[in-house]
Write a structure and sequence with these properties.
about 550 residues, 5-stranded mixed beta sheet, alpha/beta, Rossmann fold
Length: about 550
């Protein structure tokens, strides 16, 4: 019996069978793009692989990438793999301090520097003497350039193979709970994830459909790496487009007209708030309820978002409010929530047509085993399971049960039909002065569903009851000091607090909702690169004010 195919085997087959098919489309500025066929992608990757081998690095050496999503991320990764090495991708928004930590912790032998917005601030994080290569679209540097190297280097011949248990990549977590951890991913694990995702996608959109996707969530994160890059390398028939910038995102979307589109809850919420900024929610809801006209309005809304060609949409990386899913389905977008993590290459659970109740993350994907332990924690065994944490054997051992299930740290419940609901994070539970534990995530989900809210955090360690800090929706923030808006916000948030409290036991009641003075951002260190809140960082920032909040009687407080 032959060994199962690995991701490079699929890539070599596409090089032979789909060589003239356009695989990647890269914006290069001014509305111009460059298309790369499978043959062109592989030619550049083979030439860079040959160059990397000429440097004499030992097999399995770690080669890092610091770049925003771009066509040459894919090419560099393929070059690293064909040359016999392991990829370490760093989030393009990371600080110099974190960049240095990842490069030193991973023992990186070389760094590819690509498309970046804040390179002058990041460059001090690159250790002196570390060899660097500049990708196309990189900021000005003194590094040797990719184009010059591939122009003079003959391509690596043949079909260099990797063993199933060799490391394809080390994925450093985005650090929402502290120092990033390096999850080791074997070629077997990333291939099984990519195969499962590709098969699941084909089942949903049809075998004959040649899909289009826009790659814009960070490729350094497992969600985009598995669901966009790796699945497209296995499938071969996906056409991947890239975004040029935040300012051109709508044009990039309309150029791609994706048939498959994945995002994270914060961006789904921002898309919705953009719609509401043009049309009040009540008016839109009324129009959607009118026969015939409602369908016309819904199509117009989707077209304005650039999502009118989407056959399948997904949300992952963090919980999404059920009301938000329901809203998108009301305007005709087939939006389904999924559940996964870096440690299973984001291959765990997904909703589908027959398992699609908002608030539940779906059923296990093929090959995934799941159970809930006595403490309510979700334990998962996935064919895409990681190999452990790099240079942290004790943490690796503590993360698995004796029979090989990964302890996710997430709390949940399961129905007899296999549907899974995430009810919180074990590490996020906090105890109030009443001696009861509170799970913040379900309360935050309810708050985040309000159209005036962009993000929220619920806390209250040792306090008589919980509090919530909220960031106002982007469209409202410029008017934050307007007395009439403040009056409206206070009325809305008081009603929101009372509604939340009515449905919960008294130990989960919110004492107050605090309106944050400034938005939470990646650059400010309060959001991870995948736009999840950095809970401990925000809690530490507001800690000096908490006692003062509890001394007041208002339901809504302005920070």
């Amino acid at each position: 019996m032959s060994d199962p195919k690995l991701i490079l085997d699929y890539v070599y087959a596409h090089e032979t069978n789909l060589g003239s098919r356009v695989f990647l489309t890269q914006p290069i500025g001014g509305g111009q793009v460059t298309d790369y066929t499978w043959a062109q992608v592989m030619d550049q990757s083979r030439r860079m692989a040959a160059h990397l081998q000429s440097r004499g690095l030992p097999r399995g050496a770690r080669v890092a990438m610091l770049t925003k999503n771009c066509a040459h991320f894919f090419m560099a990764e393929l070059a690293i793999w064909m040359a016999g090495y392991t990829t370490v991708a760093i989030f393009p928004t990371e600080t110099a301090e974190t960049i240095r930590f990842v490069l030193e912790h991973s023992e990186a032998s070389l760094l590819f520097v690509g498309k970046l917005d804040t390179w002058p601030q990041q460059q001090p994080g690159v250790p002196e003497g570390l060899p660097c290569i500049a990708l196309p679209l990189s900021p000005p540097t003194s590094f040797e350039r990719w184009d010059d190297i591939v122009a003079r280097t003959p391509p690596l011949p043949g079909q260099p193979a990797r063993a199933p248990d060799e490391l394809a990549m080390i994925i450093y977590t985005s650090g929402s709970t502290g120092q990033p951890k390096g999850a080791m991913v074997s070629f077997n694990a990333i291939t099984r994830a990519a195969e499962g995702i590709s098969a699941d996608t084909r089942k949903r959109v049809g075998e004959q459909t040649d899909g289009r996707m826009l790659s814009y969530l960070p490729l350094a994160h497992s969600f985009e790496r598995s669901w966009v890059e790796a699945s497209s390398l296995v499938d071969g028939r996906q056409h991947i487009f890239f975004a040029e910038s935040l300012d051109t995102f709508l044009q990039d979307l309309q150029r791609a007209r994706p048939t498959l589109f994945i995002s994270v809850p914060r961006l789904w919420l921002k898309f919705q708030q953009g719609v509401f900024a043009k049309m009040p929610p009540a008016k839109l809801d009324r129009l959607l309820g009118i026969p015939i006209l409602g369908r016309i309005v819904a199509r117009k809304v989707l077209k304005g978002l650039g999502l009118d060609a989407v056959i399948q949409a997904g949300s992952g990386s963090a919980p999404i409010p059920p009301d938000l899913i329901a809203w998108y389905r009301k305007i005709g977008l087939r939006l389904f929530e999924g559940y996964g993590m870096t440690e299973d290459n984001s291959y765990s659970h997904s909703s589908d047509e027959s398992h699609s109740e908002p608030g539940w993350v779906g059923v296990p994907l093929p090959g995934v085993q799941v159970r809930i332990n006595d403490q309510g924690e979700i334990e998962i065994k996935s064919p895409a399971q990681f190999s452990g944490y790099y240079r942290q054997p004790e943490l690796t051992a503590a993360s698995f049960t004796e029979d090989g299930y990964f302890r996710t740290g997430d709390l949940g419940e399961r129905r007899p039909d296999g549907m899974l609901k995430i009810t919180g994070r074990a590490k996020e539970l906090f105890k109030t002065a009443k001696g009861k534990y509170v799970a913040p995530a379900p309360i935050e989900n309810e708050i985040n569903a309000h159209p005036m809210v962009e993000l929220s955090l619920v806390s209250g360690v040792g306090q008589p009851s919980a509090y919530a800090v909220v960031v106002l929706a982007e469209a409202l923030r410029p008017r934050q000091s307007d007395p009439s808006l403040r009056q409206q916000v206070e009325a809305e948030f008081t009603a929101l607090r009372d509604r939340i409290n009515r449905g919960r036991p008294d130990y989960e009641h919110l004492r107050m909702i605090v309106v944050a003075r400034e938005p939470w951002t990646i650059e400010g260190g309060t959001l991870t690169p995948t736009m999840k809140i950095k809970r401990s960082r925000i809690e530490a920032a507001v800690a000096p004010q908490v006692e003062h909040w509890y001394s007041r009687t208002q339901a809504v407080i302005w920070q």
